[in-house]
Amino acid sequence: MKIADVKANAFAMPLTSPAFPPGPYRFVNREFLVITYRTDMDALRAVVPEPLEVTEPVVKYEFIRMPDSTGFGDYTESGQVIPVSFNGERGGYVHAMYLNDHPPIAGGRELWGFPKKLATPLLETEIDTLVGTLDYGKVRVAKATMGFKHRVADHAAVLAGLAAPNYLLKIIPHVDGTPRICELVRYYTSNVTLKGAWTGPASLELHPHALAPVADLPVLKVESAVHYITDLTLDLGTVVHDYLAE
């Protein structure tokens, strides 16, 4: 293979059979269970990188069912998003994500910098209850429950949340193990169609784990819960801060 051919085809690894295709990445019938809970402010400050600012002692714990996603297939995801502010604009910092499908793990980490790790999340309905669970190996690290479609949620609030910016810390090492890329990335979702949104009583429990430390942001009080289904496009990102340029 000629050098020019390598450069022309170097989109993702492996060169001759990339782990994921080029975008755009469209998601159909993407189902969310989001539990908003109060936590320890010092614990948040210890994990949110500057120049992002923590605005309140709150975490959004998410379970996301993705049955139809361009190039990534059918999978489920679970993780924590922290409300933050950047240059006065409110958004969310994606702190941790666990999922059960290799292409979105590879693509998420390499393209945007999503903090994805391999695990086993589930989101399903058990009789009258929406249930989300996260197992890391054989160990249960998270469980959420919510009454199924008890009340219609505020669609405008859900859409506003989906329109807000999200932030990621993208880290790619050099071949000698030192950082080659260390950037704060901002991304948005677009072309959103909200198909339904509901709220109801909810619970959340997190358990300590050395390699899936979701419980390091402890649950002090569940504030609210929302369950919604949407179609959306995951846009590519932009770099808003380069840590290595300082």
From TrEMBL:
SUPFAM superfamilies referenced in this protein's UniProt entry, alphabetically: Acetoacetate decarboxylase-like
HAMAP family: ADC
Residues at the catalytic site: 116 (schiff-base intermediate with acetoacetate)
Record-linked NCBIfam families: PRK02265.1
Name of this protein: Acetoacetate decarboxylase
GO molecular-function term, one example from the UniProt record: acetoacetate decarboxylase activity
A Pfam cross-reference name: ADC
Job of this protein: Catalyzes the conversion of acetoacetate to acetone and carbon dioxide.
